[in-house]
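ugh ok so i messed up the first submission bc i forgot one of the chains. this is the corrected input, ALL of the components this time, i swear. 477 residues overall. if the numbers dont match what u have on ur side tell me asap before i send this to the collaborators (the ones from the other lab, u know who)
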Amino acid sequence: MEGNMSLSLKVWRQSNKDTAGGFENYKLDHVSPDMSFLEMFDVLNEQLIEEGKEPVAFDHDCREGICGACSMYINGRPHGPLRGVTTCQLHMRSFNDGDTIVVEPWRAKAFPVIKDLVVDRDSFDRVISAGGFISVNTGNAQDANSLPIPKEAADEAFSAAACIACGACVAACKNASAMLFVSAKISQLALLPQGQAERSIRAEKMVAQMDAEGFGNCTNTGACSAECPKEIGQINIARMNREYLGAKFSSSAV
Amino acid sequence: MSWFSQTISSSIGKKLLMALTGLFLISFLVIHATINAMIFYNDGGETFTHWGHFMGTNPIIRTLEIGLVAGFLIHIADGLILWKNNREARPISYEVNNRSANSTWYSRSMGLLGTLLLIFLVIHTAHFWIPNRTNQFQTGEELNLYQMMLDIFQNIWVVLIYIAGCISLFWHLLHGFKSAFQSLGLHHVKYNGIISFVGTAFSFIIPILFALMPLSIYLGWIQ
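and heres the new structure output, hopefully the right one now
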C-alpha cells in the first residue's frame, strides 16, 4: 500500500535470565503508519513464526495506555520518542520510512530480564506490599461528606495515582532509581484522609523496600518525569523526601 | 542499626547529607569569594590581609573550619558512595541511549564535575591553605598569602587550572544548588522561581568572581 514503510529493527534477544543476550537485526516491509508500535511487533512475530523462528517476547496487556505492561526502550528512550505516551499508544507515523529502530528491555539490577524484552518488575510489587495500601475493615461505604477533601488535594492525589507502574522512570534514570514510582505511590495516600493512619510507617517501609531492591539513588536530573507516560511530576519526589525524613525523625518507631 | 544510622544510610538519607553539606559548602563559597574579592581594592593586599588574618586567627572561625573540613569530607565520601551505588543499580547499560532528550548533561555529570573539583581542591589547598596552616602550627606566624597569590598566578598553567576549576564549579552549582532544595523536599510553587533564580545567579557570580582573581593577577591588573 502507498505510504507504508520499510524498517530495520535491531531487537534485544535473550532466552532467559541466566543466558547472555544479544541484538538481532530484522527487516520489516509494508509497515502501516497507522499501526501501533506493538502491532508492528505482532507483524514481526508473524513473520518470524512463518520463517520457523522464535517470536520476540514482549510485555503487553491493555494496549490502551493504562495497564503499564508495555516496556520497550526505543531508540534510547523508554516508550519511544513521544512525551506522555506508552509504547502501545506510540504509532509508526512517529517514525520514517527506512529508519533503523533499536529496541531494548528496561535496564536495571532490580528489573532482571526474563526473556527478550520482558523484564521482571516484581520489585515494584514488593515495594507496594511493604506499605502502599490502607488497612480498613470492610463495611458499608460511608457518607461522602463525612470525609471532606480539598479539591487541590484530590487533584494532586489523582495526578500521583495516574502512575501505571510501568517502570519507565527507572529505565530513564541514569541511576536506575525508582523514586518517581515510589513517591507517586506514597503521595496518592499521603494526600488523602484515608492514608493518614499509616502515613509515617508507610513512607519508612516503602523507602526501605525500595533500597533493599537495589534501585539507585535520585540525583534530580528530572529524566523520570520527562519520560513518564503519565507525566508524574518531580513534586512527588520532594514530597516523599519530606514524608520519609519527617517520619524517620519524628515517628516513635525506633 | 539505630534509627539514625538507618536514616542516614538510606537512599533519601544520603541525598539529605549531600544537600545539607552542599548548602553548607555554598555558604562557605560566599565567605571565601567575598574575602578574596578584597584583592580587587588593589591596595597592595591591605584589606585582603586584614580579613585573611581575621579568618586565620579568630577562634570561632577556626572552630568552624573543622566543620568545614568535615563538610567537604562528608560531601566527597557520600558523593563517591552514591556514585558507586548508582553504577551498580544498572549492571548492563543501554546500547542506544538518548539522554539529552530528557535531562541536561551537567545534571547527569555531578560525579564527574565533583571529581574535577576534588582534583582542583587538592591543587588549591596545596598552594595556599596547607602551607599556611602548617606554618601557623610550626611557628605561630601566618604566611603572606597575598604575595603567594601574586607569585603563584604568574604561571599561565596554574591560571588555566584555576579557570578550569571555576568552570567545573559553575556547572556543579548550576545543578547542585537547585537539586539540594529538591532533596530537602523544598519544592513549592511559591518558592521554586526564587530558588531557581538565586541558584542560577549564584552559579554565575561566584565562579566568575573566582576566575577573575588569578586572571587579573596574571594580566597585571592587580599588583
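quick check: Chain A touches chain B through 50 residues (CB under 8 Å). that seems consistent at least. Chain A has a mean pLDDT of 95.
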